[in-house]
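Quarterly update, task 2.4: coenzyme A-bound model.
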Amino acid sequence: MSSRSTVILGTGSYAPERIVTNDDLAHMVETSDEWIRTRTGIRERRIAAPTETTSDMAVHAARNALADAGVAAQDIDLLIVATLTPDMPMPATACLVQPKLGVPTTAACFDVAAACSGFVYALDTACAMVGSGRYRKALVIGVEKLSAVIDWQDRTTCVLFGDGAGAVVVGASDQPDCGLLGTKLGTFGDGADLLYISHGGSLFPSTPESIVARNHCIRMKGKEVFKLAVRAMDEAARDILEQHHVRADQISLVIPHQANLRIIEAISEYLELPMERFFVNVDRYGNTSAASIPIALDEARRAGRIKPGDLTLLVAFGAGLTYGSALIRW
Ligand code: COA
């Protein structure tokens, strides 16, 4: 682990203004509010305006996190953006966020690609870099404009996702046994074909035909992903609790990736921890991939559900299939 404790100094989030309800979607594809609610727990999601970019949303969330932390953008020397929907393939979205925020040119800026687990991966990376003493203050942003890569004619995927951004500021502390106590990251690479965007990369560059076939959009084998998600999140949670000799009932709040209420309920059952100990906002945002955990973390803090001394468990899974957990003492 790192040589110094690394703590979250502040959190922030941002959701685009436009709300799209399940009934709105029922006008676009053959679906219903009842089907979506009972299968996923989702009631509505936010969708960014066509001109609103991933980096714009990242900047809003980051400003809120900096204000909450009382840290100036000029004091950030590490900026990491977790996203699967960058503004463009190159440069990294972090490089586009940097000048908009006023983060110094001496800061290291890069993106992390681990899909819905991206925020936990990026947080671990930032904490390792700050904990080493080589960086002082990091901004970690999870952000997605998934509406840009959704096939709006595919009812099996378009009802699940939404747009948004969340951010945290990370710094060092001399106080032992606080902040990020540890993480457990892993990957089931054999499941890469269960959730993917096939075209637009170097293997299959986009062609006029691939655009017409909407191969630049998300495809998913939902049932298989569901099963692996439950297994991966359960294992990631158990492993980190064991590593740190913590019982599940010592966790005051679990902040799971918000993909599907039924997945969260399954984890609650497996860990024998009541649903009251799980933060849930999937009903209002759907699955915002890398943004889901930092948005939930920010909302949980603002709702007074995290107090000094509390133990919080973050647990995520996503395309890859990647998974990750993080144990934090506040
Ligand atoms: N509205 C109405 N019917 C729909 C529908 C929709 N939006 N989407 C699918 N259906 C239909 C299917 O076509 C299928 O019909 P059929 O039985 O006639 O073939 C039926 O509903 C059941 O589909 P099924 O896939 O068995 O549903 P499910 O109970 O597995 O739920 C998911 C589907 C996608 C909600 C669920 O599998 C899931 O949440 N998977 C995990 C997805 C996820 O979290 N991905 C992100 C990972 S980060």
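Highlight for this quarter: The two ends are 18 Å apart (CA to CA).
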